[in-house]
TrEMBL record:
Biased composition, class Pro residues, residue ranges: 68-83, 404-478
A Pfam family: NLPC_P60
Region (Disordered): 48-84, 172-196, 400-532
Single GO molecular function: cysteine-type peptidase activity
Top-level taxon in the UniProt lineage: Bacteria
Protein name: NlpC/P60 domain-containing protein
Leader peptide range in chain numbering: 1-38
Organism: Phytohabitans rumicis
């Protein structure tokens, strides 16, 4: 038994039982498949298709759209500076500018509230004076009524003795300060009403006076803080002017780079700025170079919101005075930075919320704005602070852009008429030469021949010596007078060569002799005879 048991145990240890055999085969097949299809990671082939775009990277912070719920942040002036601000000095100045801007807007708000409180106090004071006057009038009316009653009661009209006694009783009551029932009720009612009105007016006046005094104290405290911090900032800037100039140039270049893709055309989707918005822009640009002074709105100095306020007031629109209020008053017309038009207001915030708005400018196109930066600078044009951009609003709605492009393309057809004149000018330029050359030659030859021929012939006729030789030329002149002078003039042109070539001496004698005048007279007489 022991031997069988031992043999059975050895068999169980050396062989897999029928129950575990399927599991073993499955494990072996799985291991073989894993070994057969296993490959190292670096052996994966390079994909030959475009990879899927996948998910976009998440932004570093929550996207803040104008008018939407602002993302949570620390608030205040410790909001992280934009990428355009680098270095400890630039960061210090950036934070100081933000703090001063916020203080300035807060101070402007207190000043506006103080002005309203003064107005309310003046109104309350006027109401109190009116109530006091009403009380005095009521008292005077009551005293007059009492005096009249006393006077009437003191008079004893004639009549029965009983009536006289009644009058004496009335007089005694009036002397004790008593009045008749009707007069007493009316006087007391009027007096009570007047005194109640005076009490209410006094309470309103006291409240208005307390509010005005509280705002005055708050304004004084804020103003002192503002001036202290502003002076400290100016001192830091003046001490580091050279370094700040470099920082400002770098920041300006970075802002221009950031805004390069926003807008490069003044007409967006067929829209253009409203003419009144252009009028506001023109006014703002006319103020370039004027000093920045906090709390002023012209005409010689401006702060940031004072410049926009005055510009749109010039364009017949009444903006609120403070930059944050300007945004609140126009936030119903929010505009994307990709669709800005000249005249749009651009706001900048320190913490990405409306409560952090500390500066406002006016967009003028091409990524530029006109604004009054701070107390160390003047009204100027600069690149929009895209790194601090919070929102933009439009005061006057855009209008349809003028369709001036078709007329611009039509002028080319008008140029061919401009090219046609050159051919017309060239023929006149070429034709004058042939016309000038003939006149030059004929005038020269006729004047020479007519004077020479008439003088030569008349002197030859009176002289008897050349009778044998001259008979032949003399008959030709005799025959020529029979024709008209016009015919003779035509003859010398053709025969001009004959006298000049035949007889040069006669031409010289005719030129030297003074007998052309008598020769002219015979010709005239001959013509007259021929006319007969």
């Amino acid at each position: 038994m022991a031997k069988r048991a031992g043999g059975h145990k050895a068999r169980r240890d050396g062989h897999i039982g029928p129950v575990l055999r399927p599991l073993a085969w499955s494990a072996m097949l799985g291991a073989a498949a894993a070994v057969a299809f296993a490959a190292p990671v670096y052996a994966d082939p390079t994909p030959n298709t475009i990879p899927d775009a996948g998910s976009r990277p998440a932004p570093a912070g929550a996207l803040q759209l104008p008018g939407a719920t602002p993302p949570p942040n620390s608030g205040g002036v410790n909001y992280p500076p934009p990428s355009t601000v680098t270095g400890p000095l630039a960061t210090q100045i950036y934070n100081a500018e933000i703090e001063i801007g916020l203080l300035g807007d807060q101070l402007l708000g207190v000043r506006e509230s103080q002005a309203t409180a003064r107005t309310d106090l003046a109104i309350a004071h006027r109401k109190l004076e009116e109530a006091r006057a009403a009380v005095a009038k009521a008292e005077s009316a009551a005293e007059g009524a009492a005096a009249q009653a006393l006077k009437e009661a003191a008079e004893l009209p004639p009549g029965a003795f009983g009536s006289d006694l009644h009058g004496l009783s009335e007089l005694s009551r009036l002397q004790r300060g008593e009045r008749s029932t009707a007069e007493s009720d009316a006087a007391e009612h009027e007096m009570a009403r007047a005194k109640d009105a005076e009490r209410v007016a006094q309470e309103e006046y006291n409240a208005a006076l307390a509010k005005e005094q509280s705002l005055a104290g708050q304004f004084t405290t804020l103003e002192a803080t503002f001036k202290t911090k502003e002076a400290a900032l100016v001192e830091v800037k003046d001490r580091n002017a050279a370094q700040l100039a470099v920082i400002e140039r770098q920041r300006e270049a970075e802002e221009a780079r950031l805004g390069a893709g926003f807008l490069d055309d003044e007409a967006i989707a067929g829209k253009a700025a409203h003419p009144l918005a252009i009028k506001a822009v023109e006014f703002a640009l006319d103020q370039l170079g004027k000093r920045y002074v906090w709390g002023t709105e012209g005409p010689n100095t401006y702060d940031c919101s004072g410049l926009t306020w005055a510009s749109y007031r010039h364009a017949d629109y009444q903006l609120p005075r403070v930059s944050r209020d300007q945004f609140a008053g126009t936030r119903s017309k929010l505009v994307s930075q990709y669709a800005l038009l000249p005249g749009d207001l651009v706001f900048f915030s320190s913490n990405g919320t409306a409560s952090g708005i500390h500066h406002v400018g006016m967009y003028i196109g091409d990524g530029k704005m006109v604004h009054a930066p701070n107390s160390r600078e003047r009204v100027k044009v600069s690149t929009v602070w895209w790194s601090r951009f919070f929102a933009a609003t439009r005061v006057y709605g855009a209008v349809d852009a003028p369709t001036t492009t078709p007329p611009a393309t039509t002028p080319p057809p008008t140029t061919p008429p401009a090219t046609t004149p050159p051919p017309t000018t060239k023929p006149p330029a070429t034709t004058p030469p042939p016309t000038t050359t003939p006149p030059t030659t004929p005038p020269t030859t006729p004047p020479t021949t007519p004077p020479t021929t008439p003088p030569t012939t008349p002197p030859s006729t009176p002289t008897p010596t050349p009778t044998p030789t001259t008979p032949s030329p003399t008959p030709s002149p005799a025959d020529s007078p029979s024709s008209n002078p016009s015919a003779t003039s035509a003859v010398p042109t053709s025969s001009s060569a004959k006298p000049s070539s035949s007889s040069a001496p006669p031409a010289t004698t005719a030129a030297t002799s003074a007998s052309p005048s008598p020769s002219a007279t015979p010709s005239s007489s001959a013509s007259a005879s021929t006319g007969k």
